[in-house]
Amino acid sequence: MVNTTATEVGAMNNNSSNKLPLPLPLVSLNHVSLVCRSLESSLAFYRNVLGFVPIRRPGSFGFDGAWLFNFGIGVHLLQAEDPANMPAKKAEINPKDNHISFTCESMETVQRRLKEMGIRYVQRRVEEGGIYVDQLFFHDPDGFMIEVCTCDNLPVIPLLDAPQHAVCKRALAAPPAVAVPQPDPSSPAPAPVPSPLPQQQHCVAEVVVVDVANGNMSAMTAMACPEA
C-alpha cells in the first residue's frame, strides 16, 4: 500500500481543480454508426421513416454497409457479419435506454405518421419551470431506440462550475451540403414510400458537378438546411 501525505493530497486536488487539461478540439458531431441484422431493412427505415438520404460510401471498404445524411448528421449502417448471434431485439420501449434524438416541427404530425406506418411508440412529457417538452420513443428494425422531441423548448444553460462553460454554445450554422445523384429518367419509377417524419426544414437545390478526372458533368441535387 502506498501512503499519501495530506500535503500530497492537497497538491493533487489543487492540480486537478486549477490545471485541468484542455478538451479535445472538436468541431461537431459527424455521424452515428449502427450494426444491423439486415442492411436492407435498416436502410429502408432510416430513409423512408426518418428521411435520411443515401450518400456515396468509400469503395475501399471491404464490408457491406451504407451511409446516409440529413439534418446535419450522418448515419453509417454496418451489416452484421453474423446476424444470428446479434442480441435479441428489445420488445420493451424504455425511454431510459441508449438512443439518438431528433427535434421536430410538429409532434402531432409525427404521431400520425407513426400510426400510419404501424410503428409502436411510447409518449412522455417533461415539465421544467413551466416549460413542457414532449417526447416520442420507438425502435429501429434492430431495437435501437429513436426519440423525437421538442427538446429545443428548453434553454441550454451551462453550469457555472463547469470549466468549459464559457465556450459552450449551440451551433447555429447550416450543415454542409451533400450531393445526392438524381434518378435516371429512363429507369422505372420507384415504388411510392410513406412520407418521412417531419424534422427540421430543409431545402433542395440543383447544382452542377464536374468530374475533372473523367471529364464528366452531371446534374446533382444538394441537400442543405437553411440557417434559422
From TrEMBL:
Record-linked Gene3D superfamilies: 2,3-Dihydroxybiphenyl 1,2-Dioxygenase, domain 1 (3.10.180.10)
Bias kind Pro residues: ranges: 182-197
Record domain VOC: where: 28-151
Family annotation (InterPro entries): Glyas_Bleomycin-R_OHBP_Dase, Glyas_Fos-R_dOase_dom, VOC_core
Domain of life, per lineage: Eukaryota
Segments for region (Disordered): 178-197
Classification via PROSITE patterns: VOC (PS51819)
Name assigned to this protein: VOC domain-containing protein
Taxonomic lineage: Eukaryota, Viridiplantae, Streptophyta, Embryophyta, Tracheophyta
